[in-house]
Design brief:
By secondary structure, this protein is α/β, with parallel strands linked by helices. Helices cover 36% and strands 15% of the residues.
Length: 267
């Protein structure tokens, strides 16, 4: 059977986080359902676009640090979303063209755009895995992943603005443990995650009661994802302030997301 026949189709009638995020970032790869969902969230939390932009800038600073200061040349980016400016491979390969990157997402529209637009420097390599974060064993066993990354060498695992779509906190911890257990010593884990710690009173409750598909977590809950890792200073920090030399950052309530980077010990 033609594998194209088995490829999942895009359901434009149901909002998807990747397309909603694309809309907040000013992209065009979204549908009416995505925009309506995004606008409804923005009506409750007017700073969501600011938060999305700051999250994207956090990703770029993390990748730049990993490639330039930590010497990482392998990246596993799960929940990559739709391509935009300065994607993971572009930042990493600008520093070392031999860097290898695997993107993972479960939206068919992301799959189409990733294969068309995420073009590697010929000295390195990028690959795309169509899979869901909730099936980490499947991700780790994927032939495109194992054919691109070498697991006996350090890898940077990027879980950027994706774990808050796992409502069961214990399941989220288990997913991260499964993925990080597969990483060699000297590997890194980067996470950004929505939080209600700085939201205006009643905002988190309003988002929850409307049934939106993300779970906000506290600093302590997010820090637990890094159990067994050594946190890179400044540790768990609001994404806009994480290793950001620019002192003119948005107020905390306009960002509402933590970010951190940890290193798996060598011993």
């Amino acid at each position: 059977m033609d594998p194209v026949e088995n490829r999942p189709t895009v359901d434009s009638t149901v909002a998807h986080p990747a397309r909603r995020y694309n809309y907040w970032l000013g992209g065009k790869d979204n549908f009416k359902a995505d925009r309506e969902s995004a606008d409804a969230i923005e009506a409750i939390y007017p700073y969501v676009r600011v938060s999305a932009i700051q999250n994207r800038l956090f990703l770029q600073r993390v990748v730049r640090y990993l490639a330039q200061e930590a010497g990482i040349r392998q990246f596993l980016d799960i929940g990559t979303g739709l391509p935009t400016a300065d994607n993971t491979h572009e930042v990493a390969q600008a520093i070392d063209p031999t860097a290898r990157i695997v993107y993972v997402d479960n939206d068919p529209l992301v799959l189409v755009h990733a294969r068309a637009l995420l073009t590697s420097d010929p000295r390195g390599r990028t690959a795309y895995v169509d899979a869901d974060l909730r099936t980490p064993e499947r991700i780790l066993a994927d032939a495109d992943l194992t054919g691109t990354l070498t697991f006996d060498e350090p890898i940077a695992l990027l879980l950027i603005a994706v774990l808050h779509f796992i409502p069961d906190t214990e399941q989220a911890y288990a997913i991260v443990r499964t993925l990080t257990n597969a990483l060699a010593p000297g590997s890194y884990l980067a996470i950004s995650h929505g939080t209600g710690d700085y939201l205006p009173r009643g905002t988190a409750e309003a988002l929850s009661t409307r049934g939106y598909d993300f779970t906000l977590r506290s600093r302590a809950q997010i820090e637990r994802f890094f159990d067994g890792f050594d946190l890179v200073p400044p540790g768990v920090e609001v994404v806009s302030r994480w290793r950001n030399p620019d002192s003119d950052t948005p107020p905390l309530e306009e960002v509402a997301g933590y970010g951190a980077l940890g290193r798996k010990p060598l011993g």
